[in-house]
Design goal:
Layout lengths: L1 E2 L4 E2 L4 E6 L8 H4 L3 E7 L7 H9 L10 E6 L5 H20 L12 H20 L7
Length: about 140
């Protein structure tokens, strides 16, 4: 079992399929199944309902139409490192869906900050007036 800050992710809910990696790798790439396809069914998971809903609403190509997260990991040469990489990416995706931004409380600027702002604007205006055309007398 593994968890992100407050969400428990049960590894028996995650399905791993070993596949052959694409791309460069010489002869090794044709012989060894060292890439991983991770499949995680959102609806069947033990995640809280509000996180499931947020995951399903994500505009992410890794979330399929039938509500399954599919992550392909083939960065590393070893199957275990690709497996842990895919699991880390799944945890990050879930953590991103679980993140709740802090509510912003509207505040008023202090009287002192308002006064300082006006004074700086007046000072700036005075500098700009001095840049004007000089009249000859």
């Amino acid at each position: 079992m593994s968890h992100s800050p407050q969400i428990l992710l049960r590894e028996d809910e995650v399905e791993f399929i070993a596949i052959r990696a694409q791309g460069a790798g010489g002869q090794n790439v044709n012989k060894v199944s060292n890439a991983i396809h991770l499949r995680f069914a959102i609806a069947a998971s033990s995640l809280p309902d509000e996180i499931k809903a947020k995951l399903l609403q994500l505009r992410d190509q890794r979330v399929s139409v039938d509500g399954v997260i599919v992550i392909k990991a083939q960065q590393h040469r070893s199957l275990e490192r690709n497996r842990s990489d895919a699991l880390t990416r799944l945890r990050e995706l879930i953590a991103r869906a679980a993140f709740v931004p802090q509510q912003r409380r509207a505040t008023k600027p202090t009287r002192s900050s308002q006064r300082k702002r006006i004074e700086s604007k007046v000072r700036r205006g005075a500098v700009k007036v001095l840049r004007g055309r000089v009249l000859a007398q």
